[in-house]
TrEMBL record:
<keyword id="KW-0732">Signal</keyword>
<protein>
    <submittedName>
        <fullName>Uncharacterized protein</fullName>
    </submittedName>
</protein>
<feature type="signal peptide">
    <location>
        <begin position="1"/>
        <end position="24"/>
    </location>
</feature>
């Protein structure tokens, strides 16, 4: 067997054994979908979470010029309202993460970005990807990027959300964490 044929055979075998090598777009296993599906509520009060986020916002805007602070503070507070109740739903290859009372964030579960419009009619790109142990959700607008990483904890009783907001207008990303409990 010549060298080229051997390399091609090994590559084909690798694709059969490890489908992700072939570029397969896995939209998450049924097991992961079952683990994440459900309704979650804030573990702490909304007021306590708001206060914690506001402290992080103040620390961030303090590093900005005085004339940018009020605008940045208002924008960040508007975009970081803690969600009191969250539904995670899977339908076929799509996933929806819905903060009750807001526009449902629905897209393919394989990370493909789609057009999405928020409750303030701001258009952005939404991508969501279900992985084995986490869900990654990204909202990209002309003003920046918000990334939410959802992880289960305590055997699925808690949902931890790591939030990161980046923008060229900010001196550094705003990062915080929310903890929700399964209802």
């Amino acid at each position: 067997m010549n060298k080229q044929l051997l390399v091609m055979s090994m590559a084909l075998a690798a694709c059969l054994v490890f489908p992700s090598f072939a570029g397969a777009q896995d939209s998450g296993s049924d097991d992961a979908k079952k683990k994440f599906s459900g309704t979650y509520v804030l573990a702490n009060s909304k007021k306590k979470e708001r206060k914690k986020i506001n402290k992080k916002i103040e620390k961030l805007v303090d590093k900005m010029s005085f004339y940018k602070r009020p605008f940045a503070r208002g924008e960040l507070k508007d975009s970081t309202e803690p969600c009191p109740k969250l539904n995670v739903i899977f339908s076929g290859d799509d996933m929806a993460i819905n903060c009750v009372g807001n526009v449902k964030a629905k897209s393919p579960a394989n990370g493909k970005a789609v057009k999405w419009v928020d409750s303030d009619d701001e258009e952005m790109r939404l991508s969501q990807k279900l992985e084995k142990n986490r869900m990654v959700q990204k909202f990209r607008s002309e003003n920046g990027l918000r990334t939410n990483i959802y992880r289960l904890k305590d055997g699925g009783k808690k949902l931890v959300i790591d939030v990161k907001i980046t923008s060229e207008q900010l001196p550094h990303p705003l990062e915080y964490q929310l903890v929700m409990r399964r209802k």
